Automatic annotation (TrEMBL):
This is UDP-glucose flavonoid 3-O-glucosyltransferase 3. The keyword Transferase applies. It comes from the Eukaryota. Belongs to the UDP-glycosyltransferase family. One of its GO terms (molecular function) is UDP-glucosyltransferase activity. The lineage of its organism: Eukaryota, Viridiplantae, Streptophyta, Embryophyta, Tracheophyta. Keywords: Glycosyltransferase, Transferase. It comes from Sesamum angolense.
């Protein structure tokens, strides 16, 4: 399945990388990729939100997935479904295949989703009102009550993904099992919450949970990307533990005024830094991902690059796991996406939290308040424009 050209994606490169790795590693002959027929997105898909685009793209492939599975029915043992592709659970069920959900966010957020769905469906509560709660909100998968401003907007904002995420949570219960990229030592409370008798997750049983993390790409990286070797060479010249990585993930970006304020802060701190700076997607293509700047001078304070030339480096894309693994890196200003959290923990690099969207605020809360594994810049910042709703005010 090919994505439109305006979506900045490395999916094809990643598939090629995995294919190469599987042909030479222990999984030889077990991992194969099949491209589904390309879809033709309607013009309005790209002008709406990224969630709207993904939802419709997945729906458009139902028949193709069904035909593919039907043609290989004799060899298919089961279907593993992405957490946002739950319509494929129905496809698998219709063909008689067991389905397993692959949940790429933390177990704590899975619990929050199932809890909100239970409140809505069985206790008939308006979960959007949790956002206006006067006190912290108990959530079974969190050891401490969650401040209302930290709750993910996809769970409490009717103008965003609330209805869709409630639907996803209902679909999760249809799966034969839920595979999560986490591990018991990191999320003992959340994982144990799913097995408690009289669970707050409702009358319908939660499928068996399989924590299989941390799953990290520790094989050959995409270092063939232009600029990767220069980044690592620059790090080679820096003192051990002296560099702060500033990176907001493949889908994260800041408004131009925020970029200038962050630049001012980095310069005044005197710290060495490696900054992955991405341009926000155009307003008429809100489904697209952040892109590269053609000139950093257009957005950074005048003279910033010259004044910080000896202590900092501003780039676009970074090979994040390779950077975090480098001995020169001693800190990480992060959006707290779950993959980034796992990579930072694996590499032993502490996080300073700056969540943007999705479940990242709840991830940041868990890291700072529950686990003591990060320091707080902010826990409750929501980059609302990612979903196409208003601005990104703090």
């Amino acid at each position: 399945m090919k994505l439109p050209d305006y979506i900045d994606t490395v999916s094809s490169s990643f598939a090629d990388l995995l294919s190469t790795s599987s042909s030479t590693g222990p999984a030889t002959g077990r991992l194969n990729f099949f491209h589904l027929p390309p879809t033709n997105p309607a013009p309005e898909w790209s002008s709406k939100t990224r969630g709207y685009f993904i939802h419709n793209l997945v729906l458009s492939q139902k028949s193709n997935v069904a035909n593919f599975l039907q043609s290989r029915k004799a060899t298919v043992a089961g279907v593993v479904v992405d957490m946002l592709c739950t319509t494929m659970i129905d496809v698998a069920e219709e063909l008689g295949f067991p389905s397993y959900l692959f949940f790429t966010s933390p177990a704590s957020f899975l619990g929050a989703m199932l809890h909100c769905q239970t409140l809505h469906d069985e206790k008939h509560q308006d979960v959007a009102e949790l956002r206006n709660a006067e006190s912290e909100v108990p959530v079974p998968s969190f050891a401490k009550p969650v401040p209302p401003e930290v709750l993910s907007l996809v769970l409490v904002d009717k103008h965003m993904w609330l209805d869709r995420f409630l639907h996803y949570a209902r679909d999760y219960r249809k799966a034969k099992g839920i595979i999560i990229n986490t591990f018991i030592e990191l999320e003992p409370h959340a994982l144990n919450s799913f097995s408690v008798l009289g669970s707050a997750y409702g009358s319908k049983q939660v499928p068996p949970i399989y924590p299989v993390g941390p799953i990290l790409n520790q094989g050959p990286s995409l270092n063939s990307h232009e600029g990767a070797s220069g980044i690592l060479k620059w790090l080679d010249d820096q003192p051990s533990g002296s560099v702060v990585l500033v990176c907001f993930g493949s889908q994260g970006s800041l408004h131009e005024d925020q970029v200038r304020e962050l630049a001012t802060g980095l310069e005044k701190s005197g710290s060495r830094f490696l900054w992955s700076l991405r341009r926000q997607s155009p307003k008429d293509k809100r489904a697209s991902f952040p892109s590269e700047y053609t000139s950093y001078e257009d957005v950074l304070p005048e003279g910033f690059l010259e004044r910080t030339a000896k202590t900092g480096k501003v780039v676009g894309w970074v090979p994040q796991l390779d950077v975090l693994s480098h001995p020169a890196v001693g800190g990480f200003v992060s959006h707290c996406g779950w993959n980034s959290v796992l990579e930072s923990l694996w590499c032993g690099v502490p996080i300073a939290t700056w969540p943007l969207h999705a479940e990242q605020q709840m991830n940041a809360f868990q890291l700072v308040r529950e686990l003591g594994l990060a320091v707080e810049i902010t826990l409750s910042y929501h980059e609302r424009s990612e979903m196409g709703v208003g601005g990104g005010e703090k």
